[in-house]
Amino acid sequence: MYELSVTRLIEADLAKVWDVFANRTNEWWCPMPWRAEVNWGTRQPGGLTHTTMFGPDGEKNEHPGFILAWEEGRRVAVTDAIVGDLEPAGPFMIGVWELIPEGSATRYIGRARHWTAETMAHHKDMGFDEGWGTMADQFKALCEA
């Protein structure tokens, strides 16, 4: 499997962490000074999601996606390989975000799974570690506030 991942132990209970994940996504989804508008859509497998990321210099990146899994309070998986009315696209990756209780804390794991070693290497070269790491730090800070 061609996977990149980031993990954080968040000192907050699962209910709070899930609430920040699902309902306050726009506050942590992009490394600042970028910002995101995340629309999770119907929040169920087969639903469409759409994220728009805005850069500090007027950049705008659109990211349509397809929800593969929506397990309330536990896990979300989306892909850019399917968009619209089951139209093939990309593919670049499958994003999987998991929340796992660990005592009174919660383990956050963000995974980017790729079809090929080349696309994984490209994602790493794009700044995966810094970008997703910063997002995870922002997410952790919101959950622990």
TrEMBL record:
Superkingdom in the source lineage: Bacteria
InterPro entries: ASHA1/2-like_C, START-like_dom_sf
Domain Activator of Hsp90 ATPase homologue 1/2-like C-terminal: 12-143
Record-linked Pfam families: AHSA1
Recorded family membership: Belongs to the AHA1 family.
Protein name: SRPBCC domain-containing protein
Organism, scientific name: Novosphingobium aquiterrae
